[in-house]
Amino acid sequence: MDIAVTAFTPADRAAVERAFEIQTAVVTADVPGFPTPDERDFFVGMKHPRTGYAFERCLAYVDGDPVGYLEMTMPQLDNTDNVTVELQVLPDHRRRGVGRALYARAVERARALGRKRLMGMAVAALPDGAPRNGAGNGFAAAMGAESVLAEVRRRLDVTSVDQPRLDAMLTEAWKHADGYEPVRWVGATPEDLIDDVAYLDGRLVQDAPMGDLDWEPEKVDADRIRKVEQNHELRGRRMYHSGLRHRESGRLAAWTEITLADGNEWHAFQQITIVEPAHRGHRLGTIVKIDNLRRVLAKEPDLRVIDTWNAAANDHMISINEAMGFRAVDTWHNWQQSV
User: Fold this and answer.
1) Is 130 part of any domain?
2) 98, 114, 144, 338: which is deepest, by most CB within 10 A?
């Protein structure tokens, strides 16, 4: 059996199509019920990568057939010692050396670029949860990587949301939130909020449990936020935001975001939820999350489920999500290896 690892660029349409097919097959096999890649998002994302990151991509061929895909992401503005790795092998071709060949290429390129560590994620089953094959975790361990942060994915079935419970949560939360007013937007952030959004976005790594993951706070400013928003628009992603502004200071004190892709209208991701430290203890996170959920439900009639991830140690945010109806589905291990 001959294994060949070949780099490709977004200009190689045939290679991009093979990568899309491999990723779709792997997600379908390894994470049943998870949205497969949206075609527009995938192909446009290749041509218009996220600002502040460089990418290298390879396909692995066995006797001329593409059976594995490697994407390496190199942050350019911060975390410049790191390479994030997404490595996928078709299920029928696993345990034959394809993954090792792709991982060896990732190590080789990381060292050539002066990077110090590789990072990646792999899904596993929860006790009494839906089955997961765990192949990615076994592979990472075999490569010598260490699991440094466990996250749990929770899913909300929006067809069975307990609206009276949300009403009660909101009523109680607002008793603690005098002096704040809601702000809402879809898509690009209003100019009067952009600096506050950048500040809150940049706080996420500081505030969320990170385990032993070697990831430094990101340098986020208004320009970086704008470029992310433009990239989302190009890729067909809809962005719903809710926040709370502190009346006295005029500053954004809390903010949350839910995103959807045009090709997967049945599914959404609950993204960041963050409260500025000086304003914690006022139930602001609960208010913005419920407010945004209800706005999305009113605007997206085809939506059926929302997924979100939290560090397993993030008890506060988990308690809010579970009170809203999110339920644990599986766990995702962040793996890290020095090279």
Assistant:
1) no
2) 98
